[in-house]
TrEMBL record:
Entries under Pfam families matching the protein: LRR_1, LRRNT_2, PK_Tyr_Ser-Thr
KW Manganese (keyword) present: no
Protein name (record): Pollen receptor-like kinase 3
Organism listed in the record: Cardamine amara subsp. amara
Gene Ontology cellular component annotations, sorted alphabetically: membrane
Gene3D superfamilies linked: Phosphorylase Kinase, domain 1, Ribonuclease Inhibitor, Transferase(Phosphotransferase) domain 1
Renumbered residue ranges of the record's region Disordered: 279-322
Subcellular localization: Membrane
Keyword Transferase in annotation: no
Transmembrane segments: 252-272
Lineage top rank: taxon: Eukaryota
InterPro entries: Kinase-like_dom_sf, Leu-rich_rpt, LRR_dom_sf, LRR_N_plant-typ, PRK1-6/SRF4-like, Prot_kinase_dom, Ser-Thr/Tyr_kinase_cat_dom
């Protein structure tokens, strides 16, 4: 027995080696055998490579010659799917078999524990899904099971075992019972409509719209404007995977909890009365009309229309925007560069920023939230003061709350605001001044050949922008548009060439009629066609920036109807990729890098593929920024950012 335990790890290692040594082509061909009506997969042949240099197999997504995605959609495929051969694909992260003709119980895709997304929608899968089916798929972020014939309870493991779940589609099935309590913070896209669900909607899902629960007559809750007749799971029998567990014991627990609650209330009442008696015995203390204020409280906010404080300052920015009269001091929301007031800005000389140069041939990115001015205050800190006139419909309370949240964010790839000044007709936003040029000017300015960005620099910028946008999507997930105005003119380059993103999170403050003119996200396909925007509109903007960096071309998406003579990069690149001539469209420095180094060529092809996916017409098919981070092989560290709670 002791010998057996000694050799067992060795046997396991041999098994692992043999599994990993199976060629991807062999595994995929074995998988293909389990399918029927496979004419669409004729390119899958033993004499070719799945991720070949000249042509890859249909339905595969490749990264550095390895299969990371299986995308065999709308091919009328059927059969009894054999998942076993896919377990040897070490880099497989996403599977989509949507809109085919598969039937029967859900295949055992849960054997692929490294999957990040699984799309099974639009088939005829049926039967119950085991409650622990997703238990070991801890990396899963997207699960689309909609438009099938699944029955039974919603698998509990969807709610309890997937900490990174972002998208869940269960609509148009036959699920019964109550909805589990989903508490994942990244969950932003869910749909439970058109099932047979009953009971109260969990509080963790109350932030979503009522439409995602439509078609379930027995559901109740405040979001549906219906009152539940009894508390959720209070005394009803609970069904788990076909077995019944009587919940009568919960009555005793409820009674016990009620008793404890009454005792706590009585104790609090006694303490309150005792404290009140002590206060009465104290002598009244005279309160001074002037209270000492420390450094953290020295900024005063005056609401427009109220009586101006004696300590308020009035004046105009010297050499700055004419007619800006201050009715309140600055409100600091980020004190990393020190504390300063409006008077410090008044004393500083200011000059206009944003002029790309004297030559009119240089393209300018139209739109934006306002004109900008640079000022150097007495302490030596250089700041940018942005004068905003498209936020005159927002109250000071809302403005303060939103800007304070933005000022609490910390990440090396984002430029957080330092302070603001509030007036009814215009606002001032103050940022740290970044001395280097914006990405717009580095890409399109007349700097000469020696000033061109090489491929490593371009890749570093793309990765940094992805990292910063991912952080914003995480921290500002409650916003329809976590950024809203991502374009090359709002990306600055730090001393080491690290990108710094500005002008984010302002959508809710901008007047609705001015949003389409001020925010580039409103030029995404869904915004143009339907007037709708979402976080995926940010992803589209990111994709445009990626294509801009790869090609060196100025995108017409920045100027609406090509007023700056830009190129429709999305259509231009998309057509070229379909025809296989995409390399000819890239910037010469990128082309030269691909010709000189095989690794660079693979990196360029991978980044181009990401840019094309991000600019797809259908926002639902665009990747999430977390997925983009994975595909760019970025290892984000907790040292890169920190959020300061306020």
């Amino acid at each position: 027995m002791a010998v057996a335990w000694l050799i067992w790890p060795f046997v396991l290692s041999l098994t692992a080696l043999s599994t990993n040594s199976i060629p991807e082509s062999e595994s995929l061909l074995e998988f293909k055998k389990s399918l029927t009506n496979t004419k669409s997969l004729d390119s899958w042949t033993p004499d070719s490579e799945p991720c070949g240099e000249t042509q890859k197999w249909v339905g595969l997504l490749c990264n550095k010659k390895s299969v990371f995605g299986l995308q065999i959609e709308q091919m009328n495929l059927s059969g009894n799917i054999d998942v076993a051969p896919l377990t040897s694909l070490r880099f497989l992260r996403t599977i989509s078999i949507m809109n085919n003709s598969f039937t029967g119980e859900i295949p055992d895709f849960n054997r692929l524990t490294a999957l990040k997304s699984i799309y099974l929608s639009g088939n005829r899968f049926s039967g119950k899904i085991p409650f622990d089916y997703f238990q070991n798929m801890v990396s899963l972020k997207k699960a689309w099971l909609s438009n099938n014939e699944f029955s039974g309870l919603i698998p509990l493991s969807l709610a309890t075992s997937l900490p990174n779940l972002m998208e869940l589609h269960l609509e148009n099935n036959q699920f019964i019972g109550t909805i589990p309590s989903f508490t994942q913070r990244f969950l932003t896209d869910v749909d439970f409509s058109n099932n047979q669900l009953t009971g109260e909607i969990p509080s963790g899902l109350s932030r979503f719209e009522a439409r995602i629960f439509a078609g379930n007559p027995e559901l109740c809750g405040a979001i549906l404007a219906t009152t539940c007749t009894q508390p959720r799971n209070s005394s009803a029998s609970i069904t788990i995977d076909g077995t019944m567990k009587n919940a009568d014991k919960s009555k005793y627990y409820l009674a016990f909890a009620t008793l404890i609650g009454l005792l706590i209330v009585i104790l609090i009442s006694l303490l309150f009365r005792k404290k009140k008696t002590k206060r009465r015995r104290k002598k009244p203390r005279r309160i001074s009309e002037q209270t000492t204020i420390d450094d953290d409280q020295q900024i005063q906010v005056t609401v427009e229309g109220s009586r101006t404080s004696k300590n308020s300052r009035s004046g105009e920015l010297s050499n700055g925007p004419s007619g800006v009269t201050a009715t309140a001091d600055l409100v600091m929301v980020n004190k990393e560069k020190g504390v300063f007031g409006l008077s410090d800005l008044m004393k500083a000389a200011a000059h206009v920023l944003g002029n790309p140069g004297s030559g009119s041939s240089r393209p300018r990115s139209s739109g934006g939230v306002g004109s900008a001015y640079k000022a150097v205050i007495a302490s030596g800190v250089a700041v940018v003061v942005k004068r905003v006139t498209v936020m005159n419909e927002v109250s000071i309370d809302v403005f303060h709350k939103e800007i304070t949240k933005l000022g609490s964010l910390r990440h090396r790839n984002i430029l957080t605001p330092l302070a603001y000044h509030f007036r009814g007709d215009e606002k001032l936003l103050v940022f740290e001044f970044v001395p280097n040029l914006s990405l717009l000017h580095r890409l399109h300015g007349d700097h000469g050949e020696g000033f061109q960005l090489d491929w490593p620099s371009r890749l570093k910028i793309i990765q940094g922008v992805a990292r910063g946008l991912w952080f914003l999507h995480r921290e500002l997930e409650f916003l329809d548009l976590p950024h809203g105005n991502l374009k090359s003119s709002n990306i600055f380059l730090g001393e080491e060439g690290e990108p710094i993103i500005s002008e984010f999170g302002l959508q809710r403050l901008i007047n609705p009629e001015a949003q389409s003119q001020s925010l580039v996200a409103y030029r995404s396909p869904e915004a143009i066609r339907y007037g709708t925007v979402s976080a995926k509109s940010d992803v589209f903007s990111f994709g445009v920036v990626v294509l801009e960096i790869l090609t060196g071309k100025f995108p017409s998406q920045y100027a609406g109807l090509s007023r700056a003579g830009g190129t429709d990069l999305v259509e231009w690149i998309g057509s070229a990729v379909e025809q296989g001539g995409w390399m000819d469209l890239l910037h010469p420095t990128v082309v030269n890098a691909a010709a000189d180094d095989k690794t660079s060529e693979e990196e360029i092809e991978n980044v181009l593929r990401i840019g094309v996916r991000c600019t797809g017409d259908d926002p639902d098919r665009r990747p999430h920024m977390t997925e983009v981070m994975d595909e760019l092989t970025i290892e984000d560290s907790s040292e890169d950012f920190i959020t300061i709670e306020t």
